[in-house]
């Protein structure tokens, strides 16, 4: 049975296509959202007006403090700017991807010694990091949600080391119209990184499970 996640305070750090789309969907699902970007709350007035009640614009530190749960949707190369203290003790959803042409090369990732999510978790040692929402295009996240039980429902892989954190994330994924498919530990999150067979594939839930198991 999919966990039911009741109204939460959620901080979203990153107001690009993925962050903005998640803010819209989560407010519609009954959550209270604070969203931040690197340019300041005043630059988010249009987005906040569009979404309406249930969302506010704050700076990154304030959004981190505000949320019972946080979503990180910023360029991976800036992950070290995130505030560990404000995110301590919280579930942090990592929607980032490592793109070396944008983020600069990181030898630890280029030779597959670790994953971007494990580096984020090392920066946030008191948070429970779950990788999710990094494989789907923002417009598909906006448009392709389906009711529970729909045979065409798309699966979204999630990876993490904390089972309770993954349970919470599973509930949020369901509210947005998708099925969370457990991809394993945070280290196993390499199976949903750019270049992996499931990345950008928009697979039905059963097909995603099969591909992750292959």
Automatic annotation (TrEMBL):
InterPro entries: NAD(P)-bd_dom_sf, P5C_Rdtase_cat_N, STEAP_metalloreductase
Coiled coil residues, start to end: none
Aminoacyl-tRNA synthetase in keyword set: no
Keyword S-adenosyl-L-methionine in annotation: no
Recorded superkingdom: Bacteria
Domain Pyrroline-5-carboxylate reductase catalytic N-terminal: 9-98
Pfam (any one): F420_oxidored
Keywords: Oxidoreductase
GO function term, MF aspect, one: oxidoreductase activity
Family annotation (PANTHER family): DUDULIN-RELATED
UniProt protein name: Pyrroline-5-carboxylate reductase catalytic N-terminal domain-containing protein
Lineage: Bacteria, Bacillati, Actinomycetota, Thermoleophilia, Solirubrobacterales
């Amino acid at each position: 049975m999919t966990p039911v996640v009741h109204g939460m305070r959620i901080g979203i750090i990153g107001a690009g296509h993925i962050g903005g789309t998640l803010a819209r969907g989560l407010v519609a699902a009954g959550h209270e959202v604070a969203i931040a970007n690197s340019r300041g709350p005043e630059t988010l007035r249009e987005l906040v007006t569009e979404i309406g009640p249930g969302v506010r614009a704050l700076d990154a530190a304030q959004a981190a403090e505000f949320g019972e749960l946080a979503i990180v949707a910023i360029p991976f190369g800036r992950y070290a700017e995130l505030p560990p203290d404000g995110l301590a003790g919280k579930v942090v959803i990592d929607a980032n991807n490592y793109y070396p042409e944008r983020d600069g090369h990181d030898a630890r990732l280029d030779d597959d010694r670790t994953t971007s999510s494990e580096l984020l978790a090392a920066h946030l040692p008191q948070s429970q990091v779950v990788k999710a929402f990094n494989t789907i295009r923002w417009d598909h996240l906006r448009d392709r949600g389906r009711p529970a039980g729909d045979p065409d429902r798309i699966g979204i892989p999630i990876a993490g080391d904390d089972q309770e954190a993954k349970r919470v994330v599973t509930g949020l994924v369901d509210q947005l119209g998708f099925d969370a498919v457990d991809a394993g530990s945070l280290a196993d999150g390499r199976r949903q990184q750019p270049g992996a067979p499931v990345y950008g594939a928009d697979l039905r839930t059963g097909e995603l499970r099969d591909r992750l198991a292959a």
